[in-house]
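Still learning. Show one?

>
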Amino acid sequence: MNDRVTPPRASEKERRKLGTAQEVADYLQVPLATIYAWNYKGTGPKPIKVGRHVRYRWDDVESYLDALQAGGAA
């Protein structure tokens, strides 16, 4: 008997590759040090810890930009 639970299938959009700090810095056209400073201060796009690595969901990066454009404190 197989007791393992199979997670539901996610759409392709939900399965996008996570972004690295460098990829997010390049995308936002800011220095990598700015990304690290935002992480330290708790501002900027929401980071995800994967083991000892920091990654970003692209939807979170876009939400961060949308909040900036709307004048919200991101």
